[in-house]
């Protein structure tokens, strides 16, 4: 199954993507994580992406489409994948269609802006492996230490309050039109993000046909 997870920054789409990935044994492909990795490693892509990411803007379509294309050509994507954070614009969705990638379902995780502004301040991400946490909703077992790899968990640079507002604006302007795009194809399903992660997870699994 090929899935797309759509949602505003901080809506919890990464967490839900991880849940589905485990339930269906298909890889989670997070363009945000791949870009952060590229920035950390100082690759050519990374250097070009950094300024846009730090300001809360989108990285240019050609860079992201290039990265995505390489990733889904890998062997582990043969039985399906979950796109977490891609596409984020109509041209990116059109690029997927042009690549001949068939999408089975698009899940939108919906959380109102007000809730997002509160939530993002508690978000932490592992410096080493990219795993994400939340001080209140998804805490690490030991404060500041990644459960998965023992790396340090830190606040993302683009999770500063002003940058979050910018990212929300970008989402509404550039990414949200994808809802109509996929609705027209009969693929869009909305899951309303709940206060408890476990409750959202239950809805997500139901939407993809598990349980
Ligand atoms: P969030 O969904 O919480 O905003 P992500 O980790 O998905 O965070 O993305 C972080 C940043 O990486 C985005 O603000 C953007 O600058 C860049 N990015 C990620 N995916 C894309 C994409 N498909 N197109 C353009 N930029 C992207
Ligand atoms: Zn880690």
What does this structure look like?
There is one protein chain. The protein is an alpha/beta fold and 211 residues long. Helices cover 47% and strands 16% of the residues. It has helices spanning 13-24, 31-41, 44-55, 61-72, 90-99, 113-120, 161-175, 177-184, 197-207; strands at 2-7, 28-30, 81-84, 105-110, 123-126, 132-134, 153-154, 188-192. The chain starts with a strand and ends with a helix. The mean pLDDT is 93. Zinc ion binds at residues 126, 128-129, 131, 146, 148-149, 151.
* Average pLDDT for all residues: 93
Number of distinct beta strands: 8
Biggest pleated-sheet summary: 5 strands, parallel
End-to-end CA span:
16 Å
Count helical runs. 9
- Counting helices, strands and paired strands, the structural category is alpha/beta
Write the layout of secondary structure elements.
Elements: E1 2-7, H1 13-24, E2 28-30, H2 31-41, H3 44-55, H4 61-72, E3 81-84, H5 90-99, E4 105-110, H6 113-120, E5 123-126, E6 132-134, E7 153-154, H7 161-175, H8 177-184, E8 188-192, H9 197-207
Parallel strand pairs: 1-3, 1-4, 2-3, 4-8
Antiparallel strand pairs: 5-6, 5-7
Helix pairs in contact: 1-9, 2-3, 4-5
The protein binds adenosine-5'-diphosphate (ADP) and zinc ion.
Zinc ion is lined by residues 126, 128-129, 131, 146, 148-149, 151.
What is this entry, summarized?
The chain is α/β, with parallel strands linked by helices and 211 residues long. The protein is 47% helix and 16% strand. It is globular, with a radius of gyration of 16 Å.
């Amino acid at each position: 199954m090929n899935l797309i997870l759509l949602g505003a920054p901080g809506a919890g789409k990464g967490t839900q993507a991880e849940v589905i990935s485990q339930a269906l044994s298909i890889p989670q492909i997070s363009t945000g994580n791949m870009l952060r990795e590229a920035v950390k490693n100082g690759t050519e892509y990374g250097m070009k992406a950094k300024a846009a990411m730090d300001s809360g803007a989108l990285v240019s379509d050609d860079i992201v489409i290039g990265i995505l294309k390489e990733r889904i050509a890998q062997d582990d994507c043969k039985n399906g994948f979950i796109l977490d954070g891609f596409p984020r614009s109509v041209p990116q969705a059109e690029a997927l269609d042009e690549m001949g990638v068939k999408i089975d379902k698009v899940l939108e995780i919906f959380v109102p802006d007000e809730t997002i502004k509160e939530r993002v301040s508690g978000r932490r991400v592992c410096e080493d492996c990219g795993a994400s946490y939340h001080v209140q909703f998804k805490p690490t077992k030991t404060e500041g230490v990644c459960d998965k790899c023992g790396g340090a968990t830190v606040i993302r640079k683009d999770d500063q309050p002003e940058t979050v507002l910018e990212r929300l604006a970008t989402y509404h302007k550039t990414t949200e039109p994808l809802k109509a795009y996929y609705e027209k194809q009969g693929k869009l399903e909305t899951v309303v993000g709940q206060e408890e992660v476990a409750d959202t997870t239950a809805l997500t699994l139901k939407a993809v046909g598990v349980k």
